[in-house]
Write the structure tokens for this entry.
Amino acid sequence: MKTATVTPKPVREVTGTTVLICFVGFFGVVATVNGIMMHAAITTFAGTETSSSYKAGLAYRQEEAAATAQSALNWQVDGRIVRAPSGEAVLTVDVKDTKRAPVYDIDITARLTHPLNARLDHDISLSRAADSSFRGVTEATAGQWTLIIEMSRGGERVYRTKSRVVLK
């Protein structure tokens, strides 16, 4: 019977060059992945709630006074946004005073903001309709949006509402 002889493999030595190549390769992969992730984060995040928290903090007292004045008006503001058969989103805003009469001496601006990407925001031009409401259209896509409606009188903001809406 023949016996097979097994020759042991030579032990591979770990040299300084091998360690250096592994070390540089590992951190090269980590740096590459970090660079890709930073690029993705910077190019995809386009929205912030406020551009300067310092300035927002300074304006806090003015915003508080404006909210108190708005509350004293006791207006009833009803905003509805629905998809028309043509595909456009139609915003209708009704503004009534304490006697349930339409408020006429105001200008209204509306903005549909995307919660994650400011590049997708839409300004909506509103005009008074025959039934004393305000109407405007936009090409906004389906999804969740923040609807900001501001009313001004003589160039000064008198009412502001901000609400989350789902557009289908």
In short: Helices lie at 16-44, 53-58, 60-73. The beta strands are 76-83, 89-96, 107-113, 122-125, 127-128, 134-138, 143-153, 156-167. The first strand starts at residue 76 and ends at 83.
